[in-house]
Design the sequence.
């Protein structure tokens, strides 16, 4: 060996026990769904992992009724008692963190390094955080003795299956609501393991119900008359459909939708860290991040230098087996998503942008896409406007701070933005100008349960996380 | 997915650096040291280092998992990069001779074990070490310039250097005047290094920053460029006498600097973290960092060293464990 090749360092999957088939979790029990059922696969190998029940309208109805029944007592027990359950769940998540991380990587395709170091610890932290709020709601700033809404119908995406579940369930339960949650069709397994954790924590039956299925199941849940609150994370397109569906009803809605975030690098930025932030911004979780920094706006005076550093850094990214501890970029979650990423990338090329990827062997089976950047991109390119939701970065340049702000804001989305400069006053000015729910300065893709998260414009409304996250679940 | 299908993006080092990384060219670099003001403008014009980001990146590199064949390779490489060090007031010729024989044959039971890169001693022990290492490829490195504080007149520091060089040292480890650096008298530090390099003659020069005293990563980056502009062959973190000594992020900032310096000037400079690296795991983490920051060109004893004393035994213990599958006790490894 003359170069430093890293031998495989696979995480054992022996810790997870995937059953051949899974039912729905309704009223504290696993029951069969009455739909056709579907399979969930490992996107890194295309191996079928399990048969999943599909919830029909009738199944969703049962789940909502179970949640309604449970709401009567769950909303009346003291906040401190609810907090105890949430603390217990948080502790079990922490105890079973390796199992959850491995399962998440198998079902989703994300590298074990991310599920182990980011997703699962943040999930536990989220439950711990909202457990602490459960008995302090009187002091949360929403008036004395705020009341829960009732039954929350929650629909979550496949990019952070367990983390999005935590963002939805933890605040809902802390406020005294009960929930019916539908995980994404391609990533139901950790939600079903979470159901088992609810049993282990002796959570009263019906407080948490998990219904699996595809779009039809989600529609049935959102449209159900017994649902008082709809919380959705996913695409802007579906978000709009949900908003139309619930318009005119008494349902309260929060939506966390797509994004096309600008990561803005000024010429006085800490360049090495900025390059890290750009890499983390777009290649973290294969770019399957709604707040991904998918547009790099770099000041022209340092554009060549930043690009050279970025390409060198990208050449060290390791793409492959999600369960290998040294993998930086795992598998694309589904064939459908891969097709979408390929199509938009081809359009980028056809529109004249310069495409570049490091030399990169991809496995034959499974869904893979090499980390890619497009240079010479202008605001008029589709790859600068549409959410690709993959490891594809569009590089644009700017000359002045004003131009940076204009370009950053020139998008229908407004979920997040990044600013890289050593000048403190410029950070504050930029933060006041950018129309984005989260503005990171000299970092990117950092999450904390205490920090609210949510969008401007077509990136949605309502906030999750922090004290603000309680508001969507209280009257 | 099978274990064998571990894939990675192949590195294409060099290719991206065909263009100078910054607007700095060799001709402008000569002007940089024309006056204190120009040198200050240049050093303060280097991109800043965001501490949180640098720490995060270093921690990320620290989570690489190096196993089996790559671990074996890394352990041997790390042994061959050790500057086996004794820098004590109580050093004696006997202690230095013992250290030299350990450097030549770190594991007497296994002739396939590589020798260390050098032994590192005080100037008055150079003759003893040189004699003990006669005929072996192990270098003698000597600290000089009123190590570790450097608080002596330039005349004394140069005399210290010249004496070590004439006693046969292959490498001189000098310390910079941290007081002058922190007071912003960069040209004075630059001139010191140039003068010491002259006193060294053909002997390789390592420049110690004592990063624990410079404290900020911005300072570390500036000191790195300053020393490289002055002609250092190696830049070195610490004396080992001040805490904190070498840390992963500090060393990473220095490795970034040598990478950028080569891109700008074509000249390669080595890096030596010293002090505080005690375990094999730490050493391997440093190698991963070098590999992913500057590339494999730096993964030889000519361009990367560990200044250490207790590290060697842990490397040997891990090496034996890799070979036999069992851990043996500390008593099976010599204490020198």
Sequence:
């Amino acid at each position: 060996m003359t170069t430093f090749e890293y031998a495989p360092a696979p995480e054992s999957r022996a810790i997870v026990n995937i059953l051949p088939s899974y039912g729905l979790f309704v009223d504290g029990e696993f029951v069969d769904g009455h739909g056709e059922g579907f399979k969930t696969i490992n996107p890194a190998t295309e191996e079928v992992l399990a048969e999943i029940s599909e919830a029909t309208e009738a199944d969703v109805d049962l789940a909502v009724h179970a949640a309604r029944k449970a709401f009567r007592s769950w909303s009346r027990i003291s906040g401190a008692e609810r907090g105890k359950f949430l603390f217990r769940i948080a502790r079990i998540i922490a105890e079973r963190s390796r199992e959850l991380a491995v399962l998440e990587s198998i079902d989703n395709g994300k590298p074990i390094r991310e599920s182990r170091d980011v997703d699962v610890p943040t999930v536990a932290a989220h439950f711990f955080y909202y457990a602490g709020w459960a008995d302090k709601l009187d002091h949360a700033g929403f008036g004395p003795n705020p009341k829960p809404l009732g039954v929350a119908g929650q629909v979550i995406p496949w990019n952070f299956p367990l983390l999005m579940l935590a963002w939805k369930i933890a605040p809902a339960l802390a406020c005294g609501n009960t929930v019916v949650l539908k995980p994404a069709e391609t990533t139901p397994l950790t939600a079903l393991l979470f159901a088992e954790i609810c049993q282990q924590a002796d959570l009263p039956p019906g407080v948490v119900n998990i219904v699996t299925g595809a779009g039809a199941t989600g529609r049935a849940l959102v449209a159900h008359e017994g649902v008082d609150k709809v919380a959705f994370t996913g695409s802007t397109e579906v978000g709009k459909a949900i908003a139309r569906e619930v318009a005119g009803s008494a349902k309260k809605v929060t939506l966390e939708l797509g994004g096309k975030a600008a990561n803005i690098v000024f010429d006085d930025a800490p360049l090495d860290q900025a390059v890290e932030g750009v890499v983390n911004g777009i290649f973290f979780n294969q770019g399957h991040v709604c707040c991904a920094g998918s547009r790099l706006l770099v000041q022209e005076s340092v554009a060549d230098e930043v690009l050279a550093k970025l390409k060198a850094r990208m050449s060290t990214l390791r793409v492959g087996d999600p369960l290998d501890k040294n993998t930086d970029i795992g598998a694309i979650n589904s064939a459908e998503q891969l097709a979408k990423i390929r199509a938009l990338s081809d359009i980028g090329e056809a529109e004249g942008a310069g495409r570049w990827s490091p030399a990169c062997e991809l496995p034959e089976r499974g869904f893979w896409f090499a980390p890619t950047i497009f240079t010479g991109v202008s605001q008029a390119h589709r790859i600068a406007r549409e959410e690709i939701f993959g490891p594809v970065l569009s590089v644009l340049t700017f000359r002045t701070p004003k131009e940076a702000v204009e370009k950053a804001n020139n998008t229908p989305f407004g979920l997040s933005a990044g600013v890289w400069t050593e000048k403190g006053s410029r950070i504050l000015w930029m933060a006041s100008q950018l129309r984005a729910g989260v503005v990171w300065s000299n970092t990117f893709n950092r999450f904390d349960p205490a920090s609210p998260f949510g969008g401007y414009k077509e990136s949605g409304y309502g906030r999750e996380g922090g004290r603000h996250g309680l508001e969507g679940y209280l009257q | 997915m099978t274990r064998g299908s571990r894939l990675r993006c192949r590195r294409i080092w060099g290719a991206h650096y065909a263009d100078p990384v910054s607007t700095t060219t060799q001709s402008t670099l000569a002007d940089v040291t024309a006056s204190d003001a120009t040198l200050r403008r240049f050093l303060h014009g280097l991109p800043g280092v965001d501490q949180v980001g640098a720490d995060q990146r270093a921690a990320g590199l620290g989570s690489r998992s190096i196993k089996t064949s790559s671990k074996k390779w890394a352990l041997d490489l790390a042994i061959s990069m050790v500057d086996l060090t004794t820098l004590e007031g109580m050093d004696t010729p006997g202690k230095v001779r013992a250290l030299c024989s350990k450097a030549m044959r770190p594991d007497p039971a296994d002739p396939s074990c590589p020798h260390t890169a050098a032994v590192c001693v005080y100037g008055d022990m150079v003759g003893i070490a040189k004699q003990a290492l006669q005929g072996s490829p192990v270098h003698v490195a000597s600290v000089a310039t009123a190590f570790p504080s450097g608080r002596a007149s330039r005349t004394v520091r140069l005399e210290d250097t010249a004496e070590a060089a004439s006693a046969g040292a292959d490498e001189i480890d000098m310390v910079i005047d941290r007081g002058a650096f922190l007071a912003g008298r960069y040209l004075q530090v630059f001139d010191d290094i140039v003068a010491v390099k002259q006193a060294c003659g053909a002997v390789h020069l390592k420049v110690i920053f004592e990063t624990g005293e410079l404290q900020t990563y911005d300072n570390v980056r500036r000191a790195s460029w300053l020393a490289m502009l002055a002609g250092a062959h190696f830049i070195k973190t610490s004396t080992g006498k001040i805490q904190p000594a070498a840390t992963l992020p500090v060393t990473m900032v220095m490795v970034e600097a040598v990478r950028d310096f080569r891109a700008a000037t074509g000249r390669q400079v080595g890096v030596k973290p010293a002090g505080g690296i005690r375990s094999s795991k730490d050493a391997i983490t440093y190698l991963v960092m070098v590999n992913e920051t500057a590339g494999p060109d730096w993964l030889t004893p000519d361009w990367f060293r560990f200044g250490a004393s207790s590290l060697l035994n842990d490397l040997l213990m891990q090496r034996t464990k890799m070979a036999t599958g069992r851990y043996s006790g500390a008593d099976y490894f010599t204490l020198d």
